[in-house]
Amino acid sequence: MPDTTALDQATSVIEKAWGQPIEVLEVLAVRRPCDDPLLRSAMHIRTALAITDNAASVHQDRLHAMTRPGYVPAFYELDRLSSSAADLRVALAESGAYVQAIRRVLEAREAASTSDRGPAANLSRAAVARSGLASHAPGQVPDQPVPAAVAGPSAPSPGPHR
């Protein structure tokens, strides 16, 4: 069994998060993009990852062909060998960045789903309302600001001097 690629890893993570096969999710992301924008983002990133994963596979196959046992690369192939190695490293780095981006999308999805319910959402709404950042109804005058308290040592009171 070959090692799992970044694309395989991303596919399984997306399928697990949305609880459906990737083929169904692809259709949902195209047909109803406004229903779940995070799914659409994850699918776009996965598409870019598929392209990068394919490029990494091509570069890796080329390197294996040029470094197979018993094969001595010709002098003119050394540049191609070096550039294929560099291209493979770039493709693998891009694949890692795409997988990380998909993880960030999934974290945002989890954060959005947990912020909609529970006491934390109520507490944050209450804090915004108390802070004065909440919008006021038209025609309603916002509360006047409270004067700031003076900080520091109090001044000595004037009194009889001896």
How would you characterize the overall build of this protein?
With 162 residues, this protein is mainly alpha-helical. It has five helices and no strands. It has helices at 6-18, 22-31, 37-66, 78-115, 119-131. The longest helix is centred in the middle third of the chain and has 38 residues, at 78-115. It is elongated, with a radius of gyration of 30 Å. The mean pLDDT is 80.
| Rg of Cα set | 30 Å
| Main sheet makeup | none
Number of strands: 0
Give the number of helices: 5
User: Helical amount among residues, as a percent range?
Assistant: 55-70%
Q: Which class of secondary structure composition applies to the elements?
A: mainly alpha
Give the overall shape. Answer: elongated
Secondary structure blueprint with pairings:
Blueprint: H1 6-18, H2 22-31, H3 37-66, H4 78-115, H5 119-131
Helix pairs in contact: 1-3, 1-4, 2-3, 3-4
Short structural summary:
The chain is mainly α and 162 residues long. It is built from five helices and no strands.
Key attributes of the depicted protein:
162 residues, single chain, elongated, 5 helices, 0% strand, mainly alpha
